[in-house]
């Protein structure tokens, strides 16, 4: 039986998504960000694709450039002042309505959505289905650079949305002692979670964090339409995993990107007791003396 709680409200919680039709009708009222990014093995160049074709007026948001530079870990949250400077240079103010998209239905756009929300932005959504859905609907595209007017952006970090390594280690320690801890939902493929395939980085151990649960992000996306699954479908998936929604949930993955797909799926069903582990597996597995589980 699916567990309901007063901590989430299905009817009143705003959706993290907007449709192609909505964006088409409101294109002149919102700031659109192209957040496309691809793994090396995908053999795609996000910057070149953007210059060739993007949603009219879309501003390029590079997740590599807009991350913490003083670390070897990929895509970690940038410093507050660096984020403020970068977003201001994009011509975005705190009162702007933002719609983010990427070239793979829902992938890096979810991460950028979470990042803006972490820094306190109130009005931001993910384009459901991304650029492929925009193209499928025969909507206009452009190769023209956007017209940008310098803005003044002020970030207000939301610490409850972020989990770091110390918290993860303590969460595991508590569960080793028989205490209830926060759930960790892992967005990586099941073969990676189970330690059946090598990691992208051959120096990285494979497997998963103790007490974590496998929820490959691809399961949350309708493979026929490229859209995020409905709230009822998402609830059914969580029910099949025996997730008690009264407990806190931490989203994790390989490097903190697809974890955000789980995050927006949980928001879609109204959950508020959710956070994201920024370092994810690439940080945890490189940490000395941690416990790693395999199938």
Number of strands: 10
Percent helix: 25-40%
Shape: globular
CATH-level-2 architecture of the largest domain = 3-Layer(aba) Sandwich
Do you know the CATH topology of the largest domain? Oxidized Rhodanese, domain 1
Number of helices, counting only DSSP H or I runs of 4 residues or more? 10
General description of the model:
With 295 residues, this protein is of the alpha/beta class. Helix content is 28%, strand content 11%. It is built from ten helices and ten strands. It has helices at 20-25, 46-52, 80-89, 108-118, 130-136, 165-176, 190-193, 231-240, 259-268, 280-284, and strands at residues 17-18, 31-34, 59-60, 98-101, 124-127, 162-163, 183-186, 212-214, 249-252, 274-277. Helix 4 crosses helix 9. The longest helix has 12 residues, at 165-176. It is globular, with a radius of gyration of 19 Å. Residues 1-13 have low confidence and may be disordered.
Topology of helices and strands:
Layout: E1 17-18, H1 20-25, E2 31-34, H2 46-52, E3 59-60, H3 80-89, E4 98-101, H4 108-118, E5 124-127, H5 130-136, E6 162-163, H6 165-176, E7 183-186, H7 190-193, E8 212-214, H8 231-240, E9 249-252, H9 259-268, E10 274-277, H10 280-284
Parallel strand pairs: 1-5, 2-3, 2-4, 4-5, 6-10, 7-8, 7-9, 9-10
